[in-house]
């Protein structure tokens, strides 16, 4: 039973790969780095490969080649990707690179000239071509060439559902639009078909992701709805699974989602993951972000008025170029007023190609660390007080993992990997991952809760 705090970087995800090989079957390994959007790309690549007769290897030694799906969000993430490529080369020797860092092939081959191929983000066909060249398929027509069930890199009871690709924002610290292009939304029908298949396969929670979820469908010239995300959320909620919305920018039309979240029968969880990034208007302007922090507080108050049980999560950047102590103090004061439920933070890092690197007055590393420490102390105090207020309440939770000492669960206010847990450490032996159970909260910590099973 592991406890929080979780790693608060927004660009990390964990892939869970099970071995699906038959004897003599060509097999491919996968190292999936980066955000859940990249995890979905990894799932699609592996699903296509399995449909062509390849096995999926859970280790380097058993793979005929390894795909490394990289992240290029931050310089530290790039370094992590290069390390992962180097490890795969050392352990296996035959490596194909894809993902966001693949948009910089010279950067990769300069560090690792032995890689077999480099492809950019969501270039599925080029990845498959590289695999075919390195490891020709050899399917068993009686076993392999059937309709392949989708490969999932998450536990079978929840799944990420990517609804669009790319982004139209021009934030100075981000190069995602350069790597993944402008916003391109998937058709409503295609998203619903995928969601229906996931729920039919036993998925209990759909984690809706994109680079800008609230902008979904606004790239359609002939759209009938002014805000297609509202209709999509409503239809997804009708499938009977939890629907959790990630990466929602605070456009005015977000308020149209709140009535759905306030209705327990809608299936749309009262949870908003909104990247506010900062609170001082001057810092936000230097970021090329909306600089209306005061109006954001008004929106938060309205959301909570209309949906009192809503959980608000956000991530922030400290130490952005030009950030003064006064600007940072404004952020702390804003946090005290906003009282967000789930708060993550990372220190600003230069990213090659990002316009923010050319800004003046970069903050010294020791100052960034000090501000991060102070920010997280404030965030922890807010989290601890909010969780303490839940002691004695009853709530529904989703079981993620059952071990000898406890069942690890999540409330409606907790997303996988990035938020807290609720632990049941008595009477949990008969539970299974994917169960929805009602608990009474008995104890609270800084990020986690403990509870006991109750009746329905």
Summarize this structure briefly:
[4Fe-4S] cluster 2 binds at residues 167, 171, 174. With 456 residues, this protein is α/β, with parallel strands linked by helices.
Descriptive account of the structure:
The chain has three domains: 27-134, Methylthiotransferase, N-terminal domain (Rossmann fold), CATH 3.40.50.12160; 158-388, Alpha-Beta Horseshoe (pyruvate-formate lyase- activating enzyme), CATH 3.80.30; 394-453, OB fold (Dihydrolipoamide Acetyltransferase, E2P) (Beta Barrel), CATH 2.40.50.140. Helix content is 31%, strand content 20%. By secondary structure, the chain is of the alpha/beta class. It is built from twelve helices and 18 strands. The strands form four sheets. The protein has a six-stranded parallel sheet. The chain has a five-stranded parallel sheet with strand order 2-1-3-4-5, with helices on both faces. The chain has a five-stranded mixed β-barrel with strand order 14-15-16-18-17. Strand 1, helix 1 (36-51) and strand 2 form a beta-alpha-beta unit. Helix 6 (188-200) runs parallel beside helix 7 (228-237) and helix 11 runs parallel beside helix 12 (365-388). The longest helix has 24 residues, at 365-388. [4Fe-4S] cluster 2 binds at residues 167, 171, 174. [4Fe-4S] cluster 1 binds at residues 35, 71, 100. It is an enzyme of class 2 (transferase).
Element layout with pairings:
Layout: E1 27-32, H1 36-51, E2 55-57, E3 65-70, H2 75-91, E4 95-99, H3 105-111, E5 117-118, H4 124-134, E6 158-162, E7 164-165, H5 176-180, E8 184-185, H6 188-200, E9 205-209, H7 228-237, E10 242-245, H8 258-262, E11 268-273, H9 281-287, H10 293-306, E12 311-318, H11 325-338, E13 342-347, H12 365-388, E14 394-402, E15 407-411, E16 422-424, E17 436-444, E18 449-453
Parallel strand pairs: 1-2, 1-3, 3-4, 4-5, 6-9, 9-10, 10-11, 11-12, 12-13, 16-18
Antiparallel strand pairs: 7-8, 14-15, 14-17, 15-16, 17-18
Helix pairs in contact: 6-7, 11-12
